Amino acid sequence: MSKYQFKTHSDIETRNVAERLALLLKPGDVVTLEGDLGAGKTTFTKGLANGLGIKRTVNSPTFTMIKEYHGEMPLYHMDVYRLEDSEEDIGFEEYFNGNGICVVEWAHFIERYLPSEYLAVNLSYINETTRLLDFRPMGEHYESVAHKVAGYL
Ligand code: ADP
Ligand code: MG
């Protein structure tokens, strides 16, 4: 499995990487975000939204679990932290099989509902302003997307 890593030095840089990614995504694509609290998952999602032309402010959907935004295509922003150790299924597959982009914070809590192909992004805290973004593409489409984000066209 190939790895694509990006080191960012501010929240804006993280948003910029996500914005570049957004421009390469197509309807039905799924991006999972893993990383500790404060790693930058929601910040990354803000960049995706920007790239999709969404003007509304994106906030963490921790309590609602899913928020929908409408830009070039729908963006479904999920934060499933609350589902830790729960068997709850709130109809994820419909979102994953739909025509929007799904971005899932803490996706490992709903691993069994994830499609077979998606882009896994792991964010880790290096210091107050530095984060390491690690893209792990699952499947050819995401492999090509990650490749382009990294700039090898
Ligand atoms: P999470 O959703 O993973 O809990 P957030 O995106 O809500 O994390 O919070 C990340 C925090 O870290 C924000 O306050 C952001 O401004 C700050 N930050 C500092 N440097 C970075 C960076 N390089 N990338 C992303 N966020 C950063
Ligand atoms: Mg968050």
What does this structure look like?
The chain has one domain: P-loop containing nucleotide triphosphate hydrolases (Rossmann fold, 3-Layer(aba) Sandwich). The longest helix is centred in the first third of the chain and has 12 residues, at 11-22. It has 4 helices and 7 strands, in the order E-H-E-H-E-E-H-E-E-E-H. With 153 residues, the chain is α/β, with parallel strands linked by helices. Strands 1-7-6-2-5-4-3 form a 7-stranded mixed beta sheet. 25% of the residues lie in helices and 29% in strands.
Give the C-alpha Rg.
14 Å
User: Considering DSSP H and I runs of 4 or more, what fraction of the residues is helical?
Assistant: 10-25%
The CATH class, by name, is Alpha Beta
- Low-confidence stretches are none
- On the 0 to 100 scale, the average pLDDT is 93
What is the helix/strand order?
EHEHEEHEEEH
The number of distinct helices, counting runs of at least 4 residues, comes to: 4
Q: What overall geometry do the principal axes of the alpha carbons give?
A: globular
* CATH topology call: Rossmann fold
Q: Which strands sit side by side, in order, in the main sheet? A: 1-7-6-2-5-4-3
Number of DSSP strand runs: 7
